[in-house]
Amino acid sequence: MSKEMLPVIIIYTEVERKIDYYYQMQKITTYHELMVSPHVVTSAKAEFTLNQVLDISYKPFSSEAGILYLHTNQGVFPFNIHSNPQSFINAFRSFK
Prior knowledge:
single chain; 54% strand
């Protein structure tokens, strides 16, 4: 398998807010992988073929965080990321 055909993975976070037994709000952060391969883009909750994905865009908020938007024929899916997504975006465009 050549290097260009290897999947590219970026880590994204999800924050869930819960009220505990003592009525205190708890923020639970979980980390997941968003993977692009020559045929699919896969997250923890969904999988899209490359034909279903129209584009990927990125909006930075600071030097450490931003939102990666996956534009699909089913809507736009946002992913909170804390690293530079340029290699992920480049891999998607090369597979597309």
